[in-house]
Specification:
single chain, about 120 residues, Nucleotidyltransferase, domain 5
Length: about 120
């Protein structure tokens, strides 16, 4: 699409994903946000409009850089631990318009490895 920025195109892709994916109390949504330096994930109940748990590579609990796959895996493990403490076992995955590749896929794999189902 000529004249559209990368950010605008990602937002359009994200809106298509969000049309199909919604979080409920039984199956909240894992929303992933990625920048060049960091990665963040939240588990959200869209019906209530609440963020239930969150994890980010800027936290002190994550000791590796968020700009690589190891950092994304660390954020995924931290989020899964917090989800278990909150009693969350099943989620739906919202890739946020980002390609399911690299850091986003590594975060999802870490969530699955820690026992979250989606």
């Amino acid at each position: 699409m000529a004249g559209r920025s990368t950010r605008e195109l990602r937002i359009r892709r994200h809106s298509r994903v969000r049309f199909k994916v919604a979080g409920t109390a039984a199956r909240p949504r894992v929303a992933v946000s990625r920048s060049n330096k960091n990665i963040t994930a939240q588990i959200i109940d869209d019906l209530a409009g609440n963020t239930l748990v969150a994890a980010s590579s800027v936290e002190a609990a994550v000791t590796v850089s968020g700009s690589n796959i190891a950092g994304a895996e660390a954020v995924g493990k931290l989020l899964a631990e917090r989800a278990k403490q909150a009693g969350i076992t099943q989620v739906v995955f919202d890739r946020g318009g980002f390609a399911y590749h690299g850091r986003v896929a590594a975060l999802a794999a870490a969530l699955r490895a820690e026992g979250l189902e989606f």
